[in-house]
Amino acid sequence: MSQTQTSLYERLGRREGIERITRSILKNHLANPLIKTRYENSKDLARVERRVVEFFCAGAGGPETYTGSDMRATHRGMNVSEQEFVTVIDDVLAALEENGVDPPTRNEVLAILWSLKNEVIRV
Ligand code: HEM
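Above: the input record for the complex with protoporphyrin IX containing FE. Below: its predicted structure, written as tokens.
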């Protein structure tokens, strides 16, 4: 079997693409009545955006280093619900689609996010 597929990082448009996708994700969250207050209450949304870009890049196989805390520590005490988790993932999938990411690549991101479920919900 040959390994000719490009990395997830490449298919998301490298850092530039991931920055665009992350802007769309935050725009979607801030417009989403189910979760917007979570983000409106953040003390530093610009820092959150930078960290999400790093996390996304590093998780997709890029050279970036994630400088934030792990997912359990980041979301500890927020009491995130199952509904909020699904809603965040829906916003991410919509952002990927808005930015022209193809369905197989969207599904790959979905699988990665789903695998983090127990690090985020009610931790
Ligand atoms: C797999 C799903 C998720 C991932 C990968 C993820 C990832 C992240 C990352 C990387 C940060 C930035 C951490 C930092 O600034 O140091 C963050 C912050 C945050 N997350 Fe999540 N998150 C997820 C799900 C959720 C859900 C379901 C909620 C609830 C609606 C949520 C609410 C927040 C909030 C409010 C912040 C900002 C905290 C602050 O202002 O410091 N996240 N998340």
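Notes for the reader.
DSSP finds eight helices and no strands in the chain.
The domain at 11-120 is CATH 1.10.490.10 (Globin-like).
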